TrEMBL record:
Gene behind this protein: hemN
Stated name of the protein: Heme chaperone HemW
Radical SAM core domain location: 1-234
Top-level taxon of the source organism: Bacteria
Organism from which the protein derives: Alienimonas chondri
GO MF term set: oxidoreductase activity
Function: Probably acts as a heme chaperone, transferring heme to an unknown acceptor. Binds one molecule of heme per monomer, possibly covalently. Binds 1 [4Fe-4S] cluster. The cluster is coordinated with 3 cysteines and an exchangeable S-adenosyl-L-methionine.
Length: 377
């Protein structure tokens, strides 16, 4: 039984130039339609069962910016979700938040609804980097925002971005140190990517944005691994660092290949080996749901070997890697039997290591993780 659910909230004040997520900016007028349609989608896909509501271990609200919804709208959202689901004891409930949206009233509503983890889109503690990233808060806002959140919710993650145009290693290290000084429970550190179709993609092609040299980006990733570790954090995934016991359980479910449900525009679920993806356009998703049609526009049923190879890729994102016994139980394949030639090649390059427990990326392999994973697909 799937015990994780994701809900996509597609509203933002502004679309940042690097963002290619499913969202609409400056269209808060659509929030009422969205909430009505989400309730319809939930009722179609996950109606209450005769045995009662489905129990969840993790619930994640992402975006977009879920905290772009006002208080009554958030109440409607949670009412719709909790008509279908109930939280298991100790369940993790995460909401992504924009620092500029945080108020005592908002945090109180989230906490009263059962939210016990907040992921803040801080991105940088460097004013110049924040301007480049088109963020609407200042570095000096974050201590106050954290204090407000922690009055009710003590599990706070900070999202940070490195390899920003104009950024050097010293600036990135200063951002890491500023974040660590605030003693969050979790850090997510992402290298800036330029996705085709985004404003940043176009600006880079025109020469308006210059990315840091490859060796500088490598040094920034090394700092992202080493500085949190020195402060007592454990890197449990390529981009994720947590204090003991504060790992994001919802994201771990993804990397472990567990089933999960997902709702809202652009959301994709995985149930019994079948992945279904919703219409990516917000207006398109609204029209389909309002017309009583399925929100799904893609369905993919992976063959057993393809599913096993995908699980290798997901598991390798974790620092513990692919665990032999668990992998064989889940897929029916022995890891060497499936990938022996590829494993030997990547091992000879120094990118993976094997032992009795399983297969994992080496430190060097983490720098080229995408290429290593692609070799196994």
């Amino acid at each position: 039984m799937h015990r994780s659910a994701y809900t996509h909230v597609p509203f933002c004040r502004h679309r940042c130039g690097y963002c290619d997520f499913t969202l609409v900016a400056g269209r808060d007028d659509l929030a009422g339609r969205y909430l009505t349609a989400l309730d319809q989608e939930l009722n179609r896909v996950a109606p209450p069962t005769p045995g009662g509501r489905v129990e969840l271990d993790t619930l994640f609200l992402g975006g977009g910016t879920p905290t772009r919804l006002d208080g009554p709208q958030l109440d409607r959202l949670f009412d719709a979700l909790f008509r279908r689901y109930r939280l298991a004891e100790g369940a993790e409930v995460t909401v992504e938040a924009n620092p500029s949206d945080i108020t005592p009233d908002l945090v109180g509503r989230l906490a009263d609804a059962g939210v016990n983890r907040v992921s803040l889109g801080v991105q940088s503690f460097d004013a110049a980097a924040l301007t480049t990233l088109e963020r609407d808060h200042a570095p000096t806002d974050i201590p106050r925002v954290l204090e407000t959140v922690r009055r009710r919710i003590d599990n706070v993650s900070l999202d940070l971005i490195y390899a920003v145009p104009g950024q050097d290693l010293r600036s990135w290290e200063a951002t890491l140190d500023a974040a660590l000084a605030l003693e969050p429970s979790h850090l997510s550190t992402y290298g800036l990517t330029f996705e085709k179709g985004t404003a940043f993609w176009s600006r880079r092609r025109r020469g308006e944005l210059i990315t840091p040299p490859e060796e500088s980006e490598r040094a920034m990733y090394a700092a992202a691994m080493d500085r949190p570790a020195a402060a007592g954090f454990h890197q449990y995934e390529l981009s994720s660092h947590a204090r003991p016991g504060r790992e994001c359980r919802h994201n771990r479910a993804y990397w472990c290949g567990d089933d999960f449900e997902a709702f809202g525009p652009g959301a994709a679920n995985l149930i019994d080996g079948v992945r279904r993806t919703n219409h990516r356009g917000v207006l398109g998703w609204l029209k389909r749901v309002e017309a009583g049609e399925s929100s799904w526009v893609e369905e993919e049923r992976l063959a057993p070997e393809d599913r096993a190879r995908e699980l290798v890729m997901l598991n390798l994102r974790r620092t513990e890697g692919v665990e032999r016994e668990d992998f064989q139980q889940r897929t029916g394949f022995a890891i060497e039997g499936l990938l022996l030639g590829d494993l030997e090649e990547q091992e000879s390059l120094g990118f993976v290591t094997r032992d009795d427990a399983g297969v994992r990326l080496t430190r060097e392999g983490r720098f080229v993780a995408d290429g290593v994973m692609a070799a196994f697909l």
